[in-house]
Amino acid sequence: MGPGLAPGGDCAVDPARTMQPLPTGPRPLLVLAPMQNVTDLAFMRVMEHFGGPDLYVTEYFRVYETSRPDPAILRSVDENPTGKPILAQLIGRDVGPLVRTVRELEEHPVAGIDLNLGCPAPVVCRKDAGGGLLRQPARIDRILGALREAVQGRFTVKTRIGYDDPGEFERLLEVFARHDLDALAIHGRTVREGYRSPVHPGCIRRAVEVLDCPVIANGNVVDVATGRAYLRRTGAAGLMIGRGAIRNPWIFEQLRAALGRRPDAPRPTGRDLLGYIHLLWEETVRTGRKEFHARRQVDKMKRYLGYMSQGLDPSFDHRIRRAIGAEDFFGICREFLDHDRPLPGTPSEESKRFCGFRDLLAEPLKA
Ligand SMILES: Cc1cc2nc3c(=O)[nH]c(=O)nc-3n(C[C@H](O)[C@H](O)[C@H](O)COP(=O)(O)O)c2cc1C
Fold first, then answer.
1. Which is nearest to 23 in space by CA: 55, 45, 49, 50?
2. Which residue's alpha carbon is nearest to atom 22 within ligand 1?
3. Which atom of ligand 1 lies at the shortest distance from residue 245's CA?
4. How far is CA 287 from the centre of its chain?
5. For residue 194, how many other CB atoms are within 10 A of its CB?
6. Going by CA atoms, what residue is nearest to atom 14 of ligand 1?
7. Do residues 91 and 64 make contact, with C-beta atoms less than 8 angstroms apart?
8. 119, 125, 203, 213: which is the annotated catalytic residue?
9. Across-strand partners of 286?
């Protein structure tokens, strides 16, 4: 059995060499969602500059017969600059390689091992890994049994609520309930629903009711109001936030202030966002593995800006997408952001990057 993850109560410090203590305290745990090609060492350092989450999760380590842990992802564990715990996430379908990888990763300072049961990428699902595994609860059962036994420390799972239909979740919950998980993070959509539909808070509430472990709610938290609504509607022990944190790295501090009834929530301005963009540029250049190449770096920044620009003047997004070179890129950023006016609290409702989040604020219909 693992040493437990108890955001709302005590959390024993495991003496094992590789274990870091997890945060304790009465308020919900705040977790940065793992995002491939986003939540790397540079991004973690930048998040921490703005207060950061309580817990990080690596991008997924691909696991197959001949795999070895990706050195670039391992860096975020070995050089973790945040002082906060980090879980190592695995994606794979075969017990042998998964168990071997657990052993390899537990040689590094991980706070635990997390299994990805949510990735909807067709290339992953076709191989029956990530979200594809949700079609095979019996196989998940076997994998969780083997991993629970192999993992010395904390063992957590990040799942969706089904492959085709939320009705599948009940069966999955039976499987999760059998394996003494230290936490379950639930992205409240099916694999089919991708990233754009509203989430299903009722499924997360159900997990909270039937599981003994802490349940972390994920999907569509874009600001304090959606975060609080998700907690209220699910009773979850914590929130996991992905795209909302790329757009607004102040979100964790804003939530801490709101949940602690403190008046000092950050209220970022255009110039603060400009500062965030500069920091992200500097850190990604500094920790980049490849030789600096301005065009490639601008392309990388455009991927982050695709989230940050939602809710701002639409011509900012339009111009940034066409930026050529660093000078052009920063010139456009200054033109739109070099001001002291507060940033909008939420993205636009029409945004393709953030869809369906308003539904979280709607109270469920009374029976
Ligand atoms: C660019 C991107 C990459 C992602 N990579 C991963 C990943 O490596 N592992 C994982 O479990 N989920 C991954 N996800 C899913 C997120 O962790 C999260 O479940 C999803 O974005 C919903 O949360 P959000 O609405 O707060 O963004 C990724 C999502 C995005 C947008």
1. 55
2. 219
3. 26
4. 21
5. 11
6. 35
7. no
8. 119
9. none
Count of Cβ atoms closer than 10 Å to residue 1 Cβ: 8
For residue 14 the two structure tokens come to: 């495991």
Say which amino acid occupies 81.
P
Q: Can you tell me the distance from the alpha carbon of 128 to that of 172, in angstroms, rounded to the nearest whole number?
A: 16
Strands 238-241 and 29-32: parallel
Quick one: tokens of 283? 């850190």
Q: Is 13 exposed, middle or buried (0-12, 13-18, 19+ CB in 10 A)?
A: exposed
Q: Could you tell me the distance, in angstroms and rounded to a whole number, from the CA of residue 34 to the centre of ligand 1?
A: 6
Q: Dihedral sign, CA of 3, 5, 10, 14?
A: positive
Side-chain-side CA neighbours of 184 within 13 Å: the count stands at: 30
pLDDT for the residue 75: 96
Q: Give me the average pLDDT of each 10-residue run along the chain (367 residues).
A: 41 41 76 97 98 98 97 96 96 98 97 97 93 98 98 97 97 98 97 94 98 96 97 97 98 96 94 98 90 92 96 96 96 98 91 90 67
- Ligand 1 pocket, residue 353 CB under 6 Å: no
Alpha carbon nearest to ligand 1 atom 21, residue? 242
Determine contact, residues 58/116, Cβ cutoff 8 Å: no
Catalytic site includes residue 355:
no
Q: How far apart are CA 10 and CA 170, in angstroms?
A: 29
CA–CA gap between residue 343 and residue 346 (Å, rounded): 9
pLDDT for residue 21: 56
Pocket of ligand 1 contains residue 35 by CB under 6 Å = yes
